[in-house]
Design brief:
Rossmann fold, 8-stranded mixed β-sheet, globular
């Protein structure tokens, strides 16, 4: 396992720093490797609060890799930059099988959501082996399909607290998967952009009505990719509200202390 931390240059400004898309706040960061039951090595990163234990853990499942999704898809990258410092959260991001990013390439090939069951299991197993607390799944687009298909089933269901979904298309997940979530009793928070290309809020309310414990929120003005700080910030606030209901929200938009600026990466697709 590589533990080399990503390199950021932190500086302290004379005044509060406005938190922008590329702002990186302090955290303990290390590169990690996950190992699946079918023998693949997946690459990822863990970011935890600097010098203290996390209150809860996010396991992030990225958008469709055949359309540009990877562990650095922008909402997830911002989560790793901000949430350890602002919400005491551990953020575990990784590339599913056959997916590449600046971190590197995970072994294997894209399996349309089938073999990725073992990728999800490997991430949760790794988080448990590290003693990370209060594990929540966060899925975005294709990642929501993995959450819905496998999160409510053994061996994952017994070890997570619930899931938050961003832009669920409900292409691969069907009513059988929704029924499994209903039976699990696990909380489910569903964020549906008003202008989504695949599933709009009114239709999402109808589909997720099968799960009484599901909370479906339509996000006015947002699109499938959550482009723009307004919408990315809203997504992060909604994630934190599910996982840390004790925290005062919205999250701060300014930071007093050391901060860095991250280099750009290709956008999610």
């Amino acid at each position: 396992m590589s533990t080399d931390a990503p390199e950021f240059v932190f500086t302290t400004a004379d005044a509060a720093t406005e938190i922008r898309a590329s702002t990186v706040l302090p955290a303990d960061r290390r590169n990690i490797e996950l190992h699946t039951e079918d023998g693949l090595t997946l690459v990822g990163e863990l970011a935890t609060p600097a010098g203290r234990a996390p209150a809860a853990t996010l396991v992030m499942l990225h958008p469709l890799p055949t359309h540009g999704g990877f562990m650095d898809s922008h909402v997830y990258r911002k989560a790793s930059f901000r949430l350890p410092a602002l919400a005491d959260l551990a953020v575990l991001r990784f590339n599913t099988r056959g997916t590449c990013s600046p971190r590197g390439c995970s072994e294997g090939t894209f399996d349309d959501g089938d073999g990725e069951r073992l990728d999800l299991q490997a991430a949760v197993d790794w988080a448990r082996s590290e003693g990370l607390p209060e594990i929540w799944l966060v899925g975005w687009s294709f990642g929501t399909e993995l959450c819905l298909r496998y999160g409510a089933l053994d061996p994952v269901a017994d070890h997570i607290r619930g899931a938050i979904l961003l832009s669920p298309p409900l292409h691969r997940a069907d009513d059988t998967d929704l029924d499994a979530w209903r039976e699990s009793g696990l909380p489910l928070k569903v964020l549906v952009p008003e202008l989504d290309d695949y599933l709009v809020p009114a239709d999402a309310v109808d589909r997720f009505a099968r799960i009484p414990q599901a909370q479906v929120l339509g996000i006015d003005g947002a699109k499938h990719l959550w482009v723009g700080e307004k919408y990315a910030g809203r997504a992060l606030n909604e994630i934190v509200s599910a996982v840390r209901p004790d925290l005062e929200l919205p999250l701060p938009t300014q930071w007093n202390g050391p901060a860095a600026v991250a280099p750009s990466v290709l956008p999610a697709g």
